[in-house]
Design goal:
It is a single chain. The protein has helices spanning 37-41, 58-62, 111-116; strands at 15-16, 19-20, 25-26, 34-35, 47-50, 80-84, 87-97, 100-108. It has 118 residues and is of the alpha+beta class. It folds into two domains: 11-43, no CATH class; 45-116, SpoA-like (Surface presentation of antigens (SPOA), Roll). A four-stranded antiparallel sheet has the order 5-6-7-8, with no helix packed on it. Strand 6 (80-84) and strand 7 (87-97) form a beta hairpin. Residues 1-14 have low confidence and may be disordered.
Amino acid sequence: MSNEENTTGSDDVLLNTGIDPEIGKPAGGELGISLDSELLKNIPVTISIEVGRTSLKIRDLMRLTQGSVVELDRLAGEPLDLLVNDTLVAQGEIVLVNDRYGMRLTQVVPKSERLKSL
C-alpha cells in the first residue's frame, strides 16, 4: 500500500491476534496477542481516593443535613486507598499542593495482588 492510498493511518492494525486469516489457525503455531502501547495509553480510567466506608439505613440517610457527621470505618491517620476502576492500586496520605489536594503514595500494591482482584 502506498502512502497515497493510506494518508490517515486509519487502516493501521492495532490488535494482532497472531491468527492467519487464510486458515484460521495461529500463525507460526502460537497464539499471541500484541497491542499497540499508544492505544493502551489513550484508554480512560476512573481514579478515586477512598477515605473510608460506612453502611447506613435509608432512615438514617434521610436524616442527614448540613453539618451532620458520618462515621467511617477508618481511624484518623490511616492510609487512604487509591482505586483505579475500583481496583486497589496503592495507599497513601493526603497532601496539599498549591491550594489543591493530592495524594502521596506510601505503598503500591504488588502487581500479583492487583491481578487477583480482576
